[in-house]
Predict the structure.
Amino acid sequence: MKKKVASQDQRIKKLEAAVYHDVYESDYDDSPVYESSKVVSTPVTAVSTPVRKGPSLSSNQIISILGVAGVSIGIISLFFYSITRGWIGDAAQVAIGVLVGLVLFFVAYMVREKKPAWSNIVFGGAYFLEYLSIGVGVSVYEVMPASIGVFFGFLILVSSIFLSVKFSSKIIAYFSLIGGFMIPIITDSFRSHIFVMVWYLLILIALTWLSISFNWDDLRAVMMFLIFIFVYSTFGNSEGVDRNVEYMFMFFYFILFNVSSLISCVLNSKEISVLDSVILGLLPAAFLPLLYEMLPPMSGRLFGLIVILFSFVYLLQALYLKSLNLSFPNARYALVSAGVIALNLGIYFMFEALDLDYFMIFFIVEWALFTYLSSVSKDLFYDVASFAFLGLVAIWYVFVLRFVDSAGHATFFMFVLALVPFLSFLFFRFNINYKASAATFIISGYFLIFSFFKYIWWFMQAPSLDQTREIILSVLWLIYTLVLFLQVQTSDGKMLVGFLLGVTLVKIAFIDLFSLPNPERIVGFIIFGILLLVGGYFLEHARKK
């Protein structure tokens, strides 16, 4: 018995040693179990700062949205088919629409746990049908007073905002946006301007809070865009509107968007969105001229002074963001852009320049600003804005600007146009948008010489001197293109300069020389040939070097 007990005791000790060894290895060695525990522990830390984002639409969600659209089209068709057949009354048709919306709402709520994405879409469809039914009941069939329609619309709107928060659903939030925007229209209450202004202000506040809380910048931007378009198109030319009240609410909308964009940027610790930067940067260009129309008649100088003071609000905001040491340069750039745009508009109104020519100054300044910002920012918006304003400079040069008013006007704009090659040369030398700046410098210099040709008309107005002016233009073009051809190093640059040189040579050969009398033409062709030989010699010398 003693031997058996001793034997069992030894076996137990071996088992304990083996178990201890396994536990030790699994807890501390680089075993698969330990590796898996590390994999599990890492995401827990990553989830500590969640970023709430809106859902992206998948193929099944798109199909579901199309299904909701199909049901909506069917209900609409039923309304009109019932009218033609006389099957049911107007009130019954509205009731059917409300009932179908409630059924969709109930179905979406029942399948919420299993199909959350699909239920969000169905929730949105239910809200859309409810809004549609209210609109038909108030505006089409007139079976419901407008006040009752607004009341039920408000309840539906509150419900949709509540669910968008509860389910963190951007889809439901967008239906809230559409419904809130449409209520004054479908209930015929948009004629009451004060009501519409207050209503949209409340909706914008609610959706702004929603967009900041869930990082849905596009929701706020779309609502602001819709409100601006609606107010401008509806109230801009209406009679009997209290302009002071209208201005006050537009000012509230404007300030709310600006402040909310910055709050969203700071609270969510992220860069300002591209959509926000576009609206924030360009909103003064749209808002300030509209404001000038809305305000009681005042001198342009007074309004320009107000706008100049207002521009410093943007610039001070940019300085404040910089003082916080936040790594959000794009937000600062958007504020600086808005401030400079407002400053330019203020200067424009200060001088009461009603002539469209003076917009050229504004476009050149904005082109230079956005070109610089595009070099220090990763935001594509600044690249697009830079080329857009450069395009406007070109359009104004070709179709608007004329040197026909006075010698003083022409002299002033000669200096203005000289800014384009000067600034583009600086951008080129400091490697800011290198290729675009180099091309802008070459082309703008070529056209600046053409502007000089138009400018000297004020000093050589005799018809007998027309040919002399044409020759001066051709000689200046020829010298300019030959000098550039010697200096340009890249193949693209030589191709561009070569094209301009070709245009110059064609002008000399087929316009300038052929317009001369026979003796002068012969001498002109000889001089032209000598110039080409000399130019070819220097070009060949430069090529060998």
